[in-house]
Amino acid sequence: MANTLQPLVSGRRNALDWWLRERVWPSPFHILLSFATLALVVPICVKIANWAIFDAVFVSTGPESCRDAVGACWAVIAEKHRVILFGLYPFDEQWRPTLAVAIYLITVIVTLTPRFWSLRLLVPLWTIAVFVIGALMYGGIGPLRIVPTTEWGGLALTMIMFSGTVILGFPIAVLLALGRRSHLALLRSVSVVLIETLRGVPLITILFVAVNVFPLFLPAGTNVDKLLRVTIGIAIFFACYQAETIRGGLQAVPEGQYEAAKALGLRYWQMTGRIILPQALRIAFPAIMNHVIAAMKNTSFVMIIGLFDILTATTAVMQDPVWRKYYVEAYTFAGFVYFAFGFALSIYARLMERRMNKGYVS
Amino acid sequence: MTSIDRSLAASGPTRADIRARQAAKPPRRRLSWGDPFTRGLIYQAGLAILLALGIHALYSNVSENLQRQNIATGFSFLEQLARFNIGESPIPYSASDTYGRALLVGVLNTLRVAAVAIVFATVLGVAAGVARASRNVVISTLAGTYVELARNVPIILHVLLWSSIIRNLPPPRQAHDLLGIGFISNRGLTVPLPGFGTSGGTIMIALGVAVLSAFAAARLARRYGERTGRYVEPIVPALAVLVALPLLTWLVTGAQFTPDIPQRRGFGFTGGLTLSPEFFALAIGLTIYTGAFIAEIVRGGIQAVPKGQVEAARALGLHPFSIMTRIVLPQALRVIVPPLSSQFLSLTKNSSLGVIIGYPELVNIGNTVMNQTGQAMEMVTIMMLIYFTLSLITSLLMNFYNSRVALKGR
Amino acid sequence: MRFAFGFAGAIAALLCTAILPAEAGQGDTLKAIRERGEVLCGAHPGRYGFAAPDDKGRWSGFEVDLCRALGAAIFGSGEKVRFVALSSQQRFPAIQAGEVDVLARNTTATLTRDTALGLNFSPPVFYTGLGFMVRKDAGVKTVEDLNGATICMAPGSTTEQAVARLFTQHGLKYTPIVIENNKELASAYVAGRCDALAKDRDALPGVRMYDAPQPEEHVILEGTFSKEPLALAVRHGDDQWYDIVKWVMYGLMEAEENKVSQANVDEMTKSKDPYVQDLLGVTGDYGPKLGLDKKWLYWVVKSVGNYGDIYERHFGDKTKLPLPRGHNKLWTEGGLLYGLPVK
Question: Would you say the ipTM is above 0.85?
Fold first, then answer.
């Protein structure tokens, strides 16, 4: 809110007074505007609240639970939560994705905590987490029976694709960004062509390539798992956008930093890895987080090529003629899950931004 | 994407770049690993060999696979007859046209929905962005809620939700009546088309002339203001010309008015203009989703205008509306335009989601063609090329506009 | 940095394990299936009577049993089959790429698919044709009544072309709404977005029963409006595997013609008829010619029954939605099924 003046007088009462005067009724026109808006919005909010909470049915007692409901029928979510969370994963084995999601969430929370920010901890942690989650989901080890990726689904699949996208895409993004700023002409042009081409086409076409065309590129007699192909496709798409934000960060690193690093006799990778990249990533952090959030939303595109992510699972609720009526509830729920993750990530990004900028002028 | 990183990305090679390039050329060249120039050459040669090997491997794999499975190749299928119909088309199309023409219909449908959505998303986004930057806490909270809700939910969900809502409207027989002249039902929105009898052509010409004269009028008003010091909002004479000229023409040609009002008949309606539910759902979804991003860009742009500008304008006694239109927005535009163009691009690309709700845009038609001919590689290439071209054209247009609004040294 | 490289290596190792060998040339498909221990079958994600997984993920249906027959011919058990649900759009890339060994997914055999798509078709296993479902209150009795209607259909299906042809022949107009996702398509029709749903006629009763909240409000139009011979498909390049698929299908028909059914297959091994003895592998060496066990057809009939058994199980009088056999009777009974001799 840049157009506001900071209160010159301190003190609680005065601050409140200032806030009311500046933000609530700066002029008669604004009073009118506020009341008109409130008169329009409040009834709608009340209606939504009634629908979503007070008149809603939360508990499922079978297909008839919502027959007399005036409000929302959240019972549909209660009834179908297994499908929404795990998709077509074999019913009796669903403790495995549950555990996998739990491990995943713990790993993510550890990763987002600045106290644990050290490659020495995070790299082994993620290596172990990826293998454990993979083993849990796929099976084939010990008593766990094999569950092929075609049967993975729901929230678990969305999370796997999202983290796969970031884990695979981020290193590619860094390499592409460095490549685009390289003094080697060929490397630079390859990076530019790749970045600009992929940014110019919709994600769907890249998914089509991953699903329909890529198998033709492989030598006869080999096959790559479809889930993996799709994840790599989304990751490369993500990387091309992320490369541009990282490049922005690289360009904003003062050139003195390059010169100082060179003067110290650092080699290219030492200079890049220890001096330039950490600063560039800090500068570009807000934009990087924006693309990470976008990557999570982008995983929903796999619906088109027939992977059973959380959105597909939610729409599958409408396959059941008994529950078909409650499409608004189902979509609202799916939207809420994405919103919760996206909003949490963006709040986290804002907090980190403030924290990282401590001690810096800019 | 925030405005900051966009502006960073947009600026060309920095001095650090140039310095780095210069540093790569030492005065004396020796053929040794220690020499950065030689090393660079070796790296590049390595990369070139890798690239060539990779491309060769891909090519030979593809040709071997295609040959072994005897899958058809080439683009000659574009001239074969499509033998399928398309729900809505801006140009005449029937099942006895070629695949090529079917794809053209797809491209035009993509452009149609993207153009409509771009206009509405811009209007919505600017309104929400200005509201979000407002001093009024009610307004800014409302706009903030919209922005956060809309942009944190995948676009695909927006489109699906709107598609479901429209599909569950009553059928044509029980269609909601819009003032007796239009209908909204699960077959979409049907609105009357204005008709002007025999004078339609003349009025269209008058409208064209009016658009050109409006620019001239605005320019005259600005000149007049500069010369006399009495300021006239240029939009006022421009609008006056724009309305008056066609109106006069209409009156002169006999004030004919023969609107095409839709009627219920058979399975749906006859007459008027019907926007299909798919078009409608896709356009609304794209508008609401992209509008939220545009709002953030506009807010960023407005907040990038130095506070002193607003305070100075207030001190001069300018009306708040004039402060916004004359002082803040023109300066904010410089920050807004580059990221805005990338939003327009992503909107166009997101219109490919028509494929899930059945709107016959490029990907949807391409999907059918791919399936009937089995030529996935060619079809995906065509789709990518078309989107890439659209992106290029949009970038060029926006760059041109950007150079117009960018700060000019006076 | 060292850790980062370690991590990259670990990820790369993980990726490599995901690259599975697939089959390519002559005889490789069977070898790959044997190594894998199961047949990969591309199936319809959910078409009543033809293929659908239940709540616990177990697949059943007419086409599912045809795939199980292949599993039985190779492994002696109909359980050694894994089903991959494929949309109409994904089915051809999936078979071309080797993601599945065989496609049993309501696929009409056509010249283009046989050639340009690189497929080989088994003999037709189900004869059907274009049908329409409409709301009863629309008062539609004939195709002519559909003039000006909006019609829902799946993309990339032969339905799309058949409807275009039918309406051109009758000089009628229609608006197609093309939706790929099966359930989206059905719900678009049920919600009233379209006046008619165009599909293979024999798939419509299932849609009416399971997708419409009030089945009695919908009627299926009298008549079949195109030829849609459904067949199994394999990719070009492996004749041995093609032979197996082809002859297991003929075998199912021959078993029915010679009265060998799931119920009596063990008794029939004692049959005096030399042809039945050959079929069941008591005598003769027909299995090994295909690269299979001598008793290949015995195991097929034992596991899933003959063609008639399979049809009865999914479309017979005891099922919820019986379908008359019509063209899908044996040639001896006036139908079109004509198994070639296993000799």
Answer: yes
